[in-house]
Amino acid sequence: MNKELIIRSSSEAVDFALLKDGKLIELHKEEETSNFQVGDIFIAKIRKPVAGLNAAFVNVGFEKDAFLHYHDLGPNLASQLKFIKLVTTGKIKDFSLKSFQFEKEIDKDGTITDVVAVNQSILVQVVKEPISTKGPRISSELSLAGRFIVLVPFSDRVSISQKIESKEEKDRLKRLVQSIKPKGFGVIVRTVAEGKKVAEIDKDLQNLVDKWTSMCKKIPTAHHPSKVLGELNRASSILRDVFNDTFSGIIIDDEELFNETKEYIQQIAPSKESMVKLYQSKDTPIFEKYSIERQIKTSFGKSVSMSKGAYLIIEHTEAMHVIDVNSGNRSNKATNQEDTALEVNMIAAAEVARQLRLRDMGGIICVDFIDMSNPDNRKILFDFLREEMSDDKAKHKILPPSKFGIVQITRQRVRPEVNIETREENPNNENSDIEAPILIIDRIASDLERIIKLHNKVVLNVHPFIAAYLVKGFPSIRSKWFFEYKKWIKIIPRDSYTYLEYHFNDNQGKEIKD
Q1: Which one of 15, 27, 62, 423 has the fewest beta carbons within 10 angstroms of its own beta carbon?
Q2: In 3D, which of 161, 115, 164, 124 has the Cα closest to residue 143?
Q3: Cα–Cα distance for residue pair 36/225, rounded to 1 Å
Q4: Secondary structure string (H, E, C) spanning 15-47
Q5: pLDDT tens across 176-224, in order?
Q6: What is the pLDDT of residue 233?
Q7: 113 with 51: CB under 8 angstroms?
Q8: Spatial distance between the Cα atoms of 92 and 84, rounded to a whole number of angstroms
């Protein structure tokens, strides 16, 4: 498995495409005007505590107030508020917390009005970016994420990632971290720290302590509200969270961003620095070179095609996302209905896992798989879906398929859903729109895959423009079909056809219908 991060820069935004074996699995956009990223820390003001919600609305400088629930305050809120007051008034110059006297933890079942007051200054961190008409969701339990660890101020707890399975390794990491961590800070050890030496983890720890100190120095002179610690740029934050030994390349089309990324990789994985490459071709845009534009067109519509003629229908309602799995009009004489259902469901499960990450869909997702009567097959599907979603960094939970084939998924969403309009103006009718014309090739290929098994000779009738595209170059798309199916597909241009119209005929000239 190879992963590549392709980064495209423009004057307004930077786009990040994460590829897994050449297939697009994540797409992110960082806009110049984006002032609120997950992980940013603000010195803010409490605007209004609301006892009925047991939460407070907080002014962080956004047009809508941020929402801070009591359960997101953290047990050491009193210590944090005391620290901010002392720092703001200049009574604390040492920000290491080693001599700072902690306050008593707040009651975990307390009331918001007992612990915060109007106009009180507080340090908060963005945990959910502004979505739709809502302001950011914030927490006052701060954490500074590094490559191997997460530093938690006003805490003494050391915890280890649950994904590290070896008890011996967990114990080793816990002893290691306890021996180097500064007083007044808790540490969460990330999964990627498994097997790492003390020098690597200590370097990460010192970087985070320096970041904390730098942030605290800004507080006395900072305007309330204002950002006092920004997250890494999106390229670095993506690399920090997903970079591992399976990465084979990071390709960037902007020299400044290339230098920044190379410097970051030098810090976290010096041996991998050579994989960061600058894309300099002026002839082909970087997203077209790596077939990303094509994959975006084919992946973000209401209908998503898959192999074997199957496809997904993805609908979004006010309350949830609904995904319907369709087998297409397939004719499969080699297997029975149950085996066919399992085959299509397995293909769909992999695509559903990809779509959730690609679109960053959150909330409740209901997937209507094809009914399977065999409970063993339902378990196979469930286990496969869980495995496919194991790489998803967003918190999620999957329930086993019901007897009706429905799988319910909840998935955390911390950013607005990626929504790209893929429909284009209809060349035959300017008052309507159609699916992107590039999808026609995929649809023809999908239909051909099904038809070719049942007919010795197949003739394809298409619009002249499409016909020219299918036969151009070497190897042409038609040549690739010949090598794959060992049958020559005759292509006839039809002037009377609309751009997206096509039909298959058999060796007697009769149209092949589904």
Answers
A1: 423
A2: 124
A3: 13
A4: EEEEEECCEEEEEEEEECCCCCCCCCEEEEEEE
A5: 999 999 999 999 999 889 888 999 899 999 999 999 999 999 999 888 8
A6: 65
A7: yes
A8: 9
